[in-house]
Each structure stands twice: as structure tokens, then as C-alpha cells.
Amino acid sequence: MNSAVAKQIADLLNSENQLVVAYTEKRVMENGETYLYELGESNEVLSCIECKRVQWYQYEVCHLTVNPKHRGNGHGRSILNKAMEHAKENGGRIVQCTIRENNAESSGLFESAGFHKSSVFFYPNSGNNVCVWQRVISDAT
After folding, report:
1. Which UniProt keywords apply (predicted)?
2. Which of 15, 115, 116, 121 could form a disulfide with 133, with the two C-beta atoms 3.0–4.6 Å apart?
3. pTM given for the model
């Protein structure tokens, strides 16, 4: 990842999500190995997601974001599928995420990708109820 891509990712995250902490180009670069993204013409970021190992068996995906100019073209589903493939290829068994309870678009995407809502809690820093979604990505023996 180069600094121009990192800046685009930070700008997308900040403009398209209700984040408690602002992202910076530096922060994205420091954690560059955890970001997956799709580039379009002229190296424009079409979509991005952070995919990080939490436990030996568990990955968390955060802040799936699609560039507003490119919504409705399957980029959200595509980047989510890439994140699940990445987690599975690296030994992950479960992928989890948190989604604001009132974010029907994201909840619908994750549900259609086989995720199940496991719990809901109130996050006082944002003033929102947050749902925990998860999906098993490996088969039991």
C-alpha cells in the first residue's frame, strides 16, 4: 500500500462511517497489512475493509466501506468475500464484525453473506446500539 491509497482509505472511513476516532493516512499505513482494498481506474479506492486476527481462530472485519461513486456495483460483497477468503487462508475459523443496529444496509449485506447476529450492546462513546455478527468459515470435522 502506498501513501496515496492510505489517504484515500482514511478519507473514506472518516466520511462514510460514524467513527468515534478519526483515521489518518499514518494510522492506515501503520496497519497496512490488515487492510484489503479494491482499486479502480487511476488507482481510486473503490472499497476497503480492515481484516485483523483477534485470536488464533478468530478474525474481525471492520469498517467495510464502498466509495459513494461506486455503490450498487457489488464492491461491498466483493471486498467482504476477499476478507473471508483472507481469514480462511490464514487459519481463521470465525469472522466477526460489529454493525450499528440502525445500519440496515450493512446488516443486510452481512446477513446475505451468511453472518448471524449473536448479540447487541450499547456503546456509550457513540450513543448507538451495536450488533455483533459472526460467521463460521471452516467446516467441523
Report:
1. Transferase
2. 115
3. 0.92
